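From the shared-data thread, chain only:
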Amino acid sequence: MSRIMNRHVSMAALLCAAVLSACDAFDKKKVQDIAGPVPAGARIKFFNFGVNAPGVNFYANERKMTAISSGTQQEATTGVAYGGVGAGGFYTAIAPGQYTLAGKIAAAIDKDLAISNLPATLEDGNAYSFYQSGFYNTTAKTVDAFIVEDDFVPEIEYGVAYVRFVHAISNANPMTLYAWNTVDSTEVAVGAEMAYKSAGAFTALPAGFYDLRTRYAGLSTNAITRTGVSFLAGRTYTIGARGDITIISTTAINRPFLDNTANR
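Structure, as tokens:
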């Protein structure tokens, strides 16, 4: 009888030890903090919107920020082509500070020649977009450039999308971007009128499909149009105007165009 009782006591002790061990492990997991501090630094996107500009790799001082790999695992000589966004449209992390931002030719001819140079101060915790813009000068081998801060709304409402307008067409007058809802046929202005090298504030729009239009002040005709653009709830987008405003072709690569790039 004593041996049976001892066996029951031993089994009970083992069960209690196992339960206590599991509870201890659970408590350790419950209080474990693996989040750590939010990484410091700035973030930046690079756009090649310079009409007729060659493909480039983008730099911050001597640090290469964007490049494209080829099938041979070597750096491609195409770079970010006109109308393209570096790093697949994602932001690139960079330490805050003062930089000279540049687009340098990716091709073998004139390799690493800087066609755009722009001094800029990037602040900790901020996001930015750098644009090559205007018209590429084939003699001087230069193109215009500017930078804007991507000033996101502090608190996102997940029932709407956020959209802003960036004006990167050097031969176009100040314009306002309008979004026409294809479901209810309502049209709203996306921010205020923007001049060349300027960016509007992120504006909340109901998620859905839109036709986009830009117009000059006092005119009812559209300067640029783009149809069937989808904005998803909880996402943030930049609509960038690029190209040559005098082109009337609907297929020319340098025609006026409204680029849609997701910020986040």
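Residues 19 and 69 are 54 Å apart (CA to CA).
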